[in-house]
């Protein structure tokens, strides 16, 4: 009997979570998965209720659960709070405490939504790119960090970007293995592009060397290339289909995965997984809490619904149930249903729907 | 009598510099500017000749000169060299030693080249965006840095991202002032977007606070907004025309300025200026040394030619001469001349030319 902890969070979190839970309950029944759902507090709502962005109780229940489904955290309401108590701290803390070092973000173009992108159709047609981002190290967690007063009276802020060989190997392995799995499924050759700034930063020089050594020692069947972060950011725009799996550190991964998502024009569609060494994971949409549209039934619930599919696939090995959800999503898109973020007003035959109508349409397909 | 030091560097550096020097000599004569040109070594060619990527002699002459015109540095030939001796170190050192803290990169769409971009025409039509990047601080120069062996025998790489209030104010001032100048010229309201990752990094929290204080104290006539780096990377793709001036630190600036350049589809067209506190500067194309096409007369010399125009404008206050160059470049584009990087093979009436033919065509217009 497996348990899933749902953490709706802030902004549009509760609305999208409601729809995702409906979908999860439906496949739970249909495929007799035997999953039990619990809910908990994180982010701003947790601050309001307990004073902490990640209450001990939530953390304890997340540890006990087999998987976590997260909505989104943060909003202007909590911007003025002292740094250590802000909603984002809850997110960073749960990632760190659960050891969720491997963040998988897929940038996939839904053919039904090709027009929603700012990119020309031929550049992105068929795009299906996986970014493997290291999530519990690098400059996000590095010490020392802070803001201090210098002798001359002015202030100085500082952070430390740090990676050890073992941290690099751990995430490198995930990238190489996933490249092999993806290549096998697609009948293509496996390839990984490792992104660094080794011409400037020593920490990423170690990153680059370590990736090279791993490839030579254990992954001679995977083609490894290296790219500087600035160039990678350009190449994603120029020719994103040159990539299959990209692997990089926490900060470059934050930037590049958002960029890749935006290429598809539909960040409201993209799920993510954050996994620990045993494959236990937290699943969440790539988009944020969108406080400007919260509570207006405008949000797109599909990224969260697709995060449920990812959870069933990666943590519970329920491929059939995962595919059933993905199929249902594809069908509602085929039917022309669109939340406002993916609506192309120049296209005929589309119907604008709210968060709830979209979620229930997916449910009806199951 | 003013002196310009030209540093051609590596890869395509010498070819593009030859064309840029021809153009510079021509306006020097036409506008009786009285400029004297010298040349020196930097990057890989300097390593080959002296063992150092920035020989003392080059640095001394750069200090003595009124402006520096740089081609590009680096290439696979020098990849194996010890880090402190690589070509890129020469570039970082000259930036640091000359105090060139303000890097200005303009992402401007040439209407003649609108089709060269991966971005849909309506998203980028009329794009003219200035990125102000801090160039002598942040994680590029922060200490401590290095790769060390830990007690457990594994290696650890580390770098430090650091900014003090005075460094932030210095670059902030450049951004606010340029926003006012640009707004005046365009007859619009001045606006600056400051890019940080204040939700995670203390150093950029100080950045954000300092920008806010400056705006409140001295620039209430400039609208200031803040954006996280990951979101900025997305917004540049979604709607780049929402920005006018963006200001950010060294590393985010490296990534975002390359991204912005790629939006125009013609990084071979984009010049940059790196200025010190007195307005003395180093001018260089935004693109790199492109070793794969070096020596084949394929490179686009226009970014370097336009860097000459920027130099005349910013360091020598010769607006008429600067405009004459920009006008000449625009005319050769109107004539349909294209180097391969900006050639749209689906467009009729274009003529593919090499580096030299392009340079000489600009010269002929002057
Ligand atoms: C909210 C923020 C702390 C977070 C991050 O930077 O990791 C977000 O941008 C993400 O990518 O999940
Ligand atoms: C070559 C490299 C050191 C340099 C940088 O990162 O600053 C380059 O990418 C640039 O943007 O000028």
UniProtKB/TrEMBL annotation, chains A, B:
Chain ranges of the Isopropylmalate dehydrogenase-like domain: 3-362
Site, as annotated: Important for catalysis: 140, 197
Binding site for Mg(2+): 230, 254, 258
Major enzyme class: oxidoreductase
Annotated metabolic or biological route of this protein: Amino-acid biosynthesis; L-leucine biosynthesis; L-leucine from 3-methyl-2-oxobutanoate: step 3/4
Cofactor, free-text remark: Binds 1 Mg(2+) or Mn(2+) ion per subunit.
UniProt-annotated binding residues for substrate: 95, 105, 133, 230
Keywords: Amino-acid biosynthesis, Branched-chain amino acid biosynthesis, Cytoplasm, Leucine biosynthesis, Magnesium, Manganese, Metal-binding, NAD, Oxidoreductase
Single GO term (MF): 3-isopropylmalate dehydrogenase activity
Subcellular location: Cytoplasm
InterPro entries: IsoCit/isopropylmalate_DH_CS, IsoPropMal-DH-like_dom, Isopropylmalate_DH
EC number: 1.1.1.85
Catalytic reaction annotation: (2R,3S)-3-isopropylmalate + NAD(+) = 4-methyl-2-oxopentanoate + CO2 + NADH
Positions with a binding annotation for NAD(+): 75-88, 288-300
Cofactor(s) required for function per UniProt: Mg(2+); Mn(2+)
Summary of the function given for this chain in its UniProt record: Catalyzes the oxidation of 3-carboxy-2-hydroxy-4-methylpentanoate (3-isopropylmalate) to 3-carboxy-4-methyl-2-oxopentanoate. The product decarboxylates to 4-methyl-2 oxopentanoate.
Family, similarity comment: Belongs to the isocitrate and isopropylmalate dehydrogenases family. LeuB type 1 subfamily.
Assembly notes: Homodimer.
Protein name per Swiss-Prot or TrEMBL: 3-isopropylmalate dehydrogenase
Gene field: leuB
